User: What shape does this take?
Amino acid sequence: MSEPIPLDLARLRRSCVECSLHALCMPAGVDAQDLAHLERVVPRRRPLARGDVLFRTGDPLGAVYVASEGSFKTVAVTPAGEEHVLGFHLPGELFGLDAVGSGQHRCEAVALSDARVCELPFNQLAQVAAQVPSLQRQLLRIMGQSADLDHDHVDVLARRQASERIALFLHGLGERLRRIGRPADDFQLPMSRDEIARYLGLVLETVSRGFSRLHEDGVIEVRGRRVRILDARALQAAASGCEGDDLPPQRRRSPG
Amino acid sequence: MSEPIPLDLARLRRSCVECSLHALCMPAGVDAQDLAHLERVVPRRRPLARGDVLFRTGDPLGAVYVASEGSFKTVAVTPAGEEHVLGFHLPGELFGLDAVGSGQHRCEAVALSDARVCELPFNQLAQVAAQVPSLQRQLLRIMGQSADLDHDHVDVLARRQASERIALFLHGLGERLRRIGRPADDFQLPMSRDEIARYLGLVLETVSRGFSRLHEDGVIEVRGRRVRILDARALQAAASGCEGDDLPPQRRRSPG
DNA sequence: CGTCGACTTGACTAAAATCAAACCCGGTGG
DNA sequence: CCACCGGGTTTGATTTTAGTCAAGTCGACG
Assistant: This one.
């Protein structure tokens, strides 16, 4: 910050340890020495305005991203011109790995609000990972976790009842919010009804009706994008397709 | 090649080069020396009968798999007891990476027919990849390609018209068959209508009707599991939702 | 205070699920 | 050789569900 040292620890702290990706990388045991290597990745921070496009379909694989503030969506446009939302990316969640397979992005990433994003050049990341075993393990794990999110999406989309998809979406979003240290049962949706619909393979009216129904049933409270989960158990029941039943046959712990 | 070397190239040839995974690994330039390293992974071959389970939900990450003969499906059971098919895996296609993120499998893999499968211990694979840069690149790429298949699945499931999902499924299957060196327009489905339905988020009757409709329209020929694609262009049109239109409005390059 | 965009709600239509019955085909055994 | 199964598949009739079209309502913002 003051001395002309090209890469110092202070800068590293700012660039990685403080970053929300930190929570993703560190737990599995990356030590200080490894961090010194990681620094070579020199992530860059960028501010974006709502609606700004971070990368476009067809862009060559350049970097992967983590928002430190704000959320993103990734969307793909079908040949017929319909827009599918492939994912929502909350602060601290990695995205952009979709280009690793083919070398170019399969979708475009758009800021859902004003945002600040951390950009990690993928090639450097891979190069460093090749030299530091613990980082390689982490990189593989992170790619796997990213695939897990896609599987979750498939799980939602394969439900045939719109109400299940909607309930599952809300539940899943809550879980992810919890994971990044935010209240899981009281939050502001970063996306519109239309975007939720395009994520769930529905039309926006159906999503709206689904929300209203959950509201009527006392499961959630909704006003615009403000959502409060009143009865998490009932929400899970709705997600499992047990509409009328209050008690899904699924029991977790001791009945206490 | 003639000496009693415990791990010789001849064996390697049998275990990898001849393997259908070979097509996946080699093109990007893994040279002979790298192959010598790869050999340390010592894949094991296993014969399975139709219906046999290769791994189950919750099993710890042990290996990834490639069928040399026969096909597999991966399925997940929802809390409500419904079975979702997450993927079909043709000979030569890698599967089992779903455990990389969490350390345990999220689904179970079942043989759709009598099969022979090649088992690659993942940890050894990662370890070898860490030592051979070109293999590390390949491993990352393969994981990325595996994620691409999930994206394709999402693309299909997000379609709201059953006819689109079905047409897209057939088209995609054809493409994958072509990739493994089989005719893309005349094949035997390795899975039942019910399994297709559970992959597409539909019921089996809807899939059956979809096939019949494509047959009536002269797009395909179906008899049981035997499928012949008569009009690939019309199939793609159907996949894009242009039911009646013969020419999808999809134009790529200069309008000529 | 008015306007615009996002959201909700309602009435109607189209599509897929459900329920139920046949059908086809490969295999078995008489 | 043919009758008879039985699973997987097709097809039909009906019900349920989500999509479509069209008003409204809400709320933020100028």
User: Anything to note?
Assistant: Residues 160, 192-194, 204-205, 208-209, 211-212, 224-225 of chain A lie near DNA strand C (CB under 10 Å from a C1').
